[in-house]
Amino acid sequence: MCGILAVFGCIDSSQAKRSRIIELSRRLRHRGPDWSGLHCHGDCYLAHQRLAIVDPTSGDQPLYNEDKTVVVTVNGEIYNHKQLRAQLKNHTFRTGSDCEVIAHLYEEYGENFVSMLDGMFSFVLLDTRDKSFIAARDAIGITPLYMGWGLDGSIWFASEMKALSDDCERFMTFLPGHIYSSKEGAIRRWYNPPWYSEQIPSTPYDPLLLRRAFEKACSGLSLYSLNSAVLKRLMTDVPFGVLLSGGLDSSLVAAVASRYLAESEAACQWGSQLHTFCIGLKGNLGQLIYTANTVIASKWIFSVKLNVHGSPDLKAAREVADYLGTRHHEFHFTVQEGIDALEEVIYHIETYDVTTIRASTPMFLMSRKIKSLGVKMVISGEGSDEIFGGYLYFHKAPNKEEFHQETCRKIKALHLYDCLRANKSTSAWGVEARVPFLDKEFIDLAMSIDPEWKMIRPDLRRIEKWVLRNAFDDEEKPYLPKVFHLLLLNMQKEQFSDGVGYSWIDGLRDHANQHSLAREKQEDVSVLCGLIYACNFQVTDAMLMNASYVYPENTPTTKEAYYYRTIFEKFFPKNAARSTVPGGPSVACSTAKAVEWDAAWSKNLDPSGRAALGVHAAAYEEAADPKPAKPMNGN
């Protein structure tokens, strides 16, 4: 990932302003530590911090057309750039960068070319001939982009809020699938897929078609055809790997990448052995204890029990990696190490959303380890749960209409949650995350399936994401180890923040809750909850009781949420910053609308999968009337 910053219409065009732009651009250097660039044209500035992935030697930005009248600064990857270059035969390219094609497409088609791009991207383009400019963001919002306005009438764009929050009076998240045109003075949506209207599709389920769309091109097409969700993301000139949590989604990504890596161009540079990475809690690796229950059509169906204090991910990831023959890297962290990193995590991911912070912290720590190995790009499994209804609360969907509409809502909100987490947690250390499940064509195909097939039907032995599990259930050429394959294809969904180890979330909740006791009793936190940690922000009962007065917008309802909010406000104190973070009730990562599916959920609101009462094997106990805290150590 790279970092971009663009400013248009500044009253001050002095050297001091140029220096200020450079200073603000440096705040994004973690995203692009390889090189810095700046183009100035009158009162317009386009800055870039580069993470070199494709064409590291000549692809520095900003990028230009032939006569440098069109300037563009880009964050992202354009996977179909070679096909687009072939269409632009009358154009001369200066570099091998995949992003240079944007400048030439603008020359050829004007502002109406964004839908031609296949990739993840945020870009700002300046046409110096008339000083017009456009800004656009990819269909789902895999890459971040913010837009702001200065008191002097200037318009700002940046990859992260921290680059414009001090100098803009107002700013907001730039919507995914949209384009801003200075000629029109407005933002419009360029991405208009059939599923966006939330109308119920009726296409029959075809498991082979779904597998091919994710795995490889249909027979007779190029290996890097547009139908290849995973393989097109092997486009790289630097070392890379796959984030392998051991769950269904990441295991399928690793299996497909490993199976076809030898045929890719990347293998010529970096070899045909795939690198995989996983993280879990230190000292609590957990055990997957499974027992065969029954035989259905000669296939074993398994039930799974998890050590509630362990890390469900690590052992599963290790078994998948051993079967695939990957070079597997296993990292560990303690609850204390996670808590120590919280301030830095919130600064980088720029949110106070509880579930995003919980999941971002292990990913943030893992990304640092990955970068230390010299790896600059990873492929990850985000997006599958939103597309296929993989979260445990989907068990309670009352009908296929509600099921489908909830998946649509979840996909539309990905840029505020999982996409934000995956991008900013990795970019904090100069690592790029790619997400094949969020391939435009794959989403269109998967969302066209009659949602009746996606419904969770225990009577038909269909658990969450059954359509995906079934599509990759190949007995002749198994994607995963046979016994473990059957287990994985039938095991319960674990959210990433849960999968690293349940004691991670439990430790966070205890940490925030115990601050009030530590302050009131003047005792060391370690005495109260075993966590040796001192912080500047302690959450008392009185603070939480008055939270609605301190934080009237998205008022925190738990001490954990309050604690995160205080950290966020320290870095981003403006009202505009608070408004970039979503709010509302949620259970097990649901939208507010889906909370209505079960009356008990409204009493147990928590983003962890264990809040799905009656569904998760290690669910929290149903909320009861509050009781006074028990005295500890005789106090």
Keywords:
6-stranded antiparallel beta sheet; 23 helices; 635 residues; alpha+beta; 17% strand; 19 strands
Report on the structure:
- 52% of the residues are buried.
- The chain is of the alpha+beta class and 635 residues long.
- Helix 5 (248-260) runs parallel beside helix 7 (312-324), helix 9 (342-349) packs across helix 10 (354-372) and helix 9 packs across helix 22 (559-571).
Give the strand order of the largest sheet, numbering strands 1, 2, ... along the chain: 2-3-1-9-8-10
The percentage helix is 25-40%
Largest sheet composition: 6 strands, antiparallel
Low-pLDDT segments, ≥5 res: 217-227, 284-310, 495-502, 515-537, 622-635
What is the tally of helical segments?
A: 23
Portion of residues in beta strands equals: 15-25%
**What's the oligomerization state?**
single chain
Distance between the termini: 52 Å
Structural class: alpha+beta
Rg value: 24 Å
> Tell me, what's the shape?
globular
Mean of pLDDT: 84
Quick one: how many beta strands?
Answer: 19
Topology:
Blueprint: E1 3-8, H1 15-26, E2 35-41, E3 44-50, E4 63-64, E5 70-78, H2 81-87, H3 101-109, E6 119-127, E7 132-137, E8 146-149, E9 155-158, E10 170-173, E11 178-181, E12 186-189, H4 207-215, E13 240-243, H5 248-260, H6 265-270, E14 275-281, E15 288-296, E16 299-306, H7 312-324, E17 327-333, H8 335-340, H9 342-349, H10 354-372, E18 377-379, H11 384-388, H12 400-412, H13 418-427, E19 432-434, H14 440-446, H15 466-471, H16 482-488, H17 496-499, H18 502-521, H19 525-529, H20 541-545, H21 547-550, H22 559-571, H23 575-578
Parallel strand pairs: 13-14, 13-18, 14-17, 18-19
Antiparallel strand pairs: 1-3, 1-9, 2-3, 4-5, 5-6, 6-7, 7-11, 8-9, 8-10, 11-12, 15-16
Helix pairs in contact: 5-7, 9-10, 9-22, 10-13, 18-22
